[in-house]
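Hi V.,

You were right to ask for the full record rather than a summary. Here it is.
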Amino acid sequence: MRGLLDTNVLIYAYFIDTKKHGIARRILNSLDEWLVPYIVLVELVWFGRGAGLDDKRIRDMTLTFLSDNRFRLIHNELEEIVDSLAVENPLDWEDELIILIAERMGVPLVTFDENMREKAKRRSIQLIP
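Predicted structure:
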């Protein structure tokens, strides 16, 4: 099974002391392919910087996922980027980029973000968990 991963899944899976670490690890372990939008990789690095992690820790965190043979980096199509600019709230832009990939590829979206889950449900995108 394949799943399109949101940033929060990677964060919870990496940091042992997070409340959803166990479920995030179980989900990742259950997937044959981790489809990771480029924007999610960027957000992961931004998160690390915002959390005060040093460059080595950010690199190690990122390489933990990149080096897994299930990892697949996914890019947005030009049309998706243009379409995503139509969101009313600029803070929703990254979520829209991710949702558009899930729609295009017809794959489940893996996220713990309740707002993103609601948007995906309205568009009939399968969700994990």
